[in-house]
Amino acid sequence: MDRDDPLSRAADISGKLLVIAAAVVAAVILLWSLRAIVVPIFLAILLATQLHPLTEWLRARRLPSGLAVALTLIATTLLALVIVAAIAGQFVGEIDELADQASQGAEDAAGWIAASSGPLDWSEDDVKEQVTKIGDQIGDSTDEILKGVLGGVSAAASIAAGLLLAFAFLIYMLFDRGGAFRWFRERFRDPERAETVERLGEAAWSTLGSYVRGVATVAVFDAVLIGAALFILGVPLAGALTAIIFLLAFIPIIGAWVSGIVSTLVALAGVGVEAALIVAAVSVAVQQLEGVAVSPLVYRRRVRLNPMVTLAVVTAGGILGGVIGAFIAVPVTATLWAVGEERRRILEERSGGAASEGEGPAPEPAA
């Protein structure tokens, strides 16, 4: 068969795509099987991108390396405890009331939908039945996710073991000062390959650092503005809702929608329709302002993912790994994308250089 035939070319491309897809599936299965160690290492890398500059700053002040790492970890631990205490303080004793308020808001919304259904002629019971079905489906899916993630081990024990392992890796990374990466780079004897590895590593490190700083800034931005609106409107449990907004902001797109819906329902039940509409409008406006002005500034063009891609990877991460999967899906995808883009730039630079080197003086015309 002619290799230039369109059908033959399509068969060749399909075969290559199948091989690539099989390799990707095999890699995902391997990483999923080793998730007990892969996730802590990745979390440690995320933290190291933020703490490494502080450790280096302390070393530059002629502090011993061990003391610099210890001070960095102590300061970080104290800050984390303050944040956890502040957030936990908003939930203790209020989580049941928050659930009741959200449930009451859902019932009020069902009544309003039934009253405004127009030609659909929905009754309040019909709306509640549909909402209940959706809730049951979400609950069943969540149960299946948790069963797959926990694998028979208690959630508290798994989280504690993962955090301890991540902390141990973090200590090593801060002490190591990039020694492991330098060792890996030196395995490549070819200078061009060593340079490629170094540039790809720098791209990955920079992207992860930008992502962590960006998502934390966005979380504070959302919590401050939307939380201020909740307090001004006198929405019940405004403090707990602000904490939820801050936490869910670390799960792109989906987290913002979930926190906005919960806040709107609580405002509907606790204050009224006008307050609920204002909360919904403020939530949407803040999300739009974040996407147009805040995110491009704080991410500094390092994390460039299409919103549709972000939504897809967050959903896939949630299905595969629950909350942790949804959290790490975006930084992993953004890092892989940045590495691919840097690889493309390297190839373009070298192909351009090769073309320039191959160009010589124009041959003289034949006599």
What can be said about this structure in brief?
The protein is 84% helix and 0% strand. It contains twelve helices and no strands.
Q: Hey, roughly how much beta strand do the residues contain?
A: under 5%
Largest sheet: none
Please report the distance between the alpha carbons of the first and last residues.
46 Å
- C-alpha-based Rg, rounded: 26 Å
Strand count = 0
Kindly report the average pLDDT value.
Answer: 76
Q: What structural category do the secondary elements indicate?
A: mainly alpha
Task: Catalogue the unreliable spans.
Answer: 134-153, 360-367
Q: Give the helix level as a range of percent.
A: over 70%
**Helix run count:** 12
Give the ordered list of helices and strands. Answer: HHHHHHHHHHHH
- The geometry reads as globular
Task: Note down, in words, how this protein is organized.
Helix content is 84%, strand content 0%. With 367 residues, the chain is mostly helical. Helix 4 packs across helix 10 (254-270). The longest helix is centred in the C-terminal third of the chain and has 52 residues, at 307-358.
Looking at this protein, list some descriptive labels:
single chain, 367 residues, mainly alpha, 84% helix, disordered C terminus
Helix-strand blueprint:
Layout (H helix, E strand, L loop, with lengths): L5 H28 L1 H26 L4 H27 L3 H21 L8 H27 L4 H22 L2 H8 L4 H43 L4 H11 L5 H17 L2 H27 L7 H52 L9
Helix pairs in contact: 2-3, 2-6, 2-8, 3-9, 4-5, 4-10, 5-12, 7-8, 8-9, 8-11, 8-12, 9-10, 10-11
